[in-house]
Amino acid sequence: MSDSQMAGEIAAAVIEALKSERMTLEEALSIMKRGEEMARSLHVPMVFTVVDDGGNMVAMHRMDNSLLAAISVSHAKAYTAAALRISTEEAGKTVLPGQPLYGLQQTHPGKFCVFGGGVPLTSGGRFLGGLGVSGGTTEQDIAVARHAVSGCP
After folding, report:
1. Neighbours of 91 (CB within 10 A)
2. What mean pLDDT comes out for the span 5-32?
């Protein structure tokens, strides 16, 4: 086997391995379903958005009668959790006056959201993306987001 053939096979194997470690639609739907179950138990219609490791939307689910504003907020929370690889609740603490990332949310107008309800998604120690939950109080959004990802490996 030539060096170029071997390099091609190695590259193909790496690409295949990376594909299997990416956020899938099936995984995103499963996460959103767990979240919706809790939202229903709270009697709070919510919107769920899952993005991949690049911040690109994998799936969005809007429960009946959820707030229209929750669509863009859930997406911004998911994007923020993915971009910063921390929860939006934690990110919010770092952007206050006098804190190390003060003003960060202004660097990407309309993309960052720094109040609770966004969490990074990981599997086996590998970063996969972010989940954003919106529609309830901040405390409800945080609780539902945590519950939604609680079944993730």
Report:
1. 24
2. 76
* 137 contact partners, CB below 8 Å, separation of at least 6: none
Measured distance CA(9)–CA(88) in Å, rounded? 40
Give the Cα separation of 76 and 94 in Å (integer).
17
Dihedral pair phi/psi, residue 123, rounded to 5°: -150, 120
Q: What is the mean pLDDT of the chain?
A: 90
Q: What is the pLDDT of residues 67-114, one digit of tens each?
A: 999 999 999 999 999 999 999 999 999 888 898 888 887 887 778 898
* Cα separation, 48 vs 29, whole angstroms: 10
| Token code pair at residue 15 | 């690409």
CA 25-30-33 angle, 5° bins? 125
SS3 119: strand
Please name the helix (run of DSSP H) or strand (run of DSSP E) that holds residue 24, with its range, or none. none
Cα–Cα distance, 104 to 137 (Å, whole number): 23
